[in-house]
Amino acid sequence: MRLFPDSRLQDSFAVTKGENEMDGKKLLRYTMQLAMLKQLLTKRLIDENEYSLIQKRLMKDYGIVSNITA
Fold first, then answer.
1. Domain spans in the chain, listed from the N-terminal domain onward
2. What is the pLDDT of residues 32-41, one digit of tens each?
3. Does the structure show a pLDDT above 90 at 62?
4. DSSP character at residue 68
5. What is the 3-state secondary structure (H, E, C) of 14-70?
6. Using CA atoms, how far apart are residues 33 and 40, in angstroms rounded to an integer?
Protein backbone atom coordinates (compact mmCIF):
# COMPACT_ATOMS: atom_id res chain seq x y z
CA MET A 1 0.00 0.00 0.00
CA ARG A 2 1.34 3.39 -0.98
CA LEU A 3 1.11 6.19 1.53
CA PHE A 4 0.44 8.72 -1.22
CA PRO A 5 -1.35 7.23 -4.22
CA ASP A 6 -0.52 10.27 -6.32
CA SER A 7 3.23 10.53 -6.99
CA ARG A 8 2.98 14.34 -7.02
CA LEU A 9 2.10 14.25 -3.33
CA GLN A 10 5.17 12.17 -2.57
CA ASP A 11 7.35 14.64 -4.47
CA SER A 12 5.93 17.62 -2.59
CA PHE A 13 6.46 15.82 0.73
CA ALA A 14 10.12 15.20 -0.15
CA VAL A 15 10.62 18.86 -1.03
CA THR A 16 9.03 19.96 2.23
CA LYS A 17 11.27 17.62 4.22
CA GLY A 18 14.33 18.95 2.39
CA GLU A 19 13.31 22.53 3.07
CA ASN A 20 12.88 21.75 6.78
CA GLU A 21 16.36 20.22 6.90
CA MET A 22 17.79 23.32 5.22
CA ASP A 23 15.97 25.58 7.68
CA GLY A 24 17.39 23.54 10.54
CA LYS A 25 20.93 23.86 9.19
CA LYS A 26 20.44 27.57 8.63
CA LEU A 27 19.17 28.04 12.17
CA LEU A 28 22.10 26.05 13.55
CA ARG A 29 24.60 28.22 11.66
CA TYR A 30 22.87 31.38 12.95
CA THR A 31 22.93 30.07 16.53
CA MET A 32 26.62 29.20 16.29
CA GLN A 33 27.50 32.62 14.94
CA LEU A 34 25.45 34.29 17.65
CA ALA A 35 27.28 32.24 20.32
CA MET A 36 30.65 33.27 18.89
CA LEU A 37 29.52 36.88 18.82
CA LYS A 38 28.52 36.64 22.48
CA GLN A 39 31.99 35.29 23.31
CA LEU A 40 33.55 38.33 21.67
CA LEU A 41 31.36 40.57 23.80
CA THR A 42 32.13 38.62 26.98
CA LYS A 43 35.88 38.85 26.32
CA ARG A 44 35.46 42.59 25.69
CA LEU A 45 36.81 42.32 22.16
CA ILE A 46 33.72 44.20 20.94
CA ASP A 47 31.44 46.63 22.75
CA GLU A 48 27.64 46.62 23.15
CA ASN A 49 27.11 48.81 20.08
CA GLU A 50 29.20 46.56 17.83
CA TYR A 51 27.42 43.51 19.25
CA SER A 52 24.03 45.03 18.50
CA LEU A 53 24.98 46.02 14.94
CA ILE A 54 26.41 42.59 14.13
CA GLN A 55 23.46 40.80 15.73
CA LYS A 56 21.00 42.84 13.64
CA ARG A 57 22.99 42.02 10.50
CA LEU A 58 23.00 38.31 11.33
CA MET A 59 19.24 38.40 11.92
CA LYS A 60 18.74 40.07 8.54
CA ASP A 61 21.07 37.65 6.74
CA TYR A 62 19.42 34.57 8.26
CA GLY A 63 15.83 35.85 8.10
CA ILE A 64 15.32 35.90 11.86
CA VAL A 65 12.42 38.20 12.70
CA SER A 66 12.47 38.17 16.49
CA ASN A 67 15.17 38.23 19.13
CA ILE A 68 13.88 36.03 21.94
CA THR A 69 17.12 36.46 23.90
CA ALA A 70 16.45 40.15 24.51
1. 7-62
2. 999 999 999 9
3. yes
4. T
5. HHHHHHHHHHHHHHHHHHHHHHHHHHHHHCCCCCHHHHHHHHHHHHHHHCCCCCCCC
6. 11
